[in-house]
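Practice problem: predict the structure.
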Amino acid sequence: MRRCCRVTNGPAGYLTCPTVFSEPMASCTTELVGFIPVTVNGCHLACHLITGVIGMVAVARRTRATSYALLGGLYYLVWGAVGLVGGPDVRHHLGVDVVGTWVHIAEGALLVVIWLSTRRRSVATAERRRAATASTT
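Answer:
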């Protein structure tokens, strides 16, 4: 990924919901693209900020980016599952609604799919190298 394109949505959330500084557990709903409601709180934003910063550092090297895709994917899948299973009380503490919970599950699934696709390419590349080495010897 090009360095100019690295972003994290944590800072955007802090800018659109400044109340999270004074009341970190209070939910704030803002609209994305003018009509998509997004509910967050300070805990939610901190989690995205932390994973975003880790992701921006990880993309500097392919192996770290691949590891981030797997670990980040599992993190978001667990976060989404906890929101679904835990119900409204847990979602309140995570600063997310039901739709947001499904968005986290989709984010996690996408990252795991990215990880799987990079693994398949790595295995195919290794097999081609082995075949090329075997044919030259």
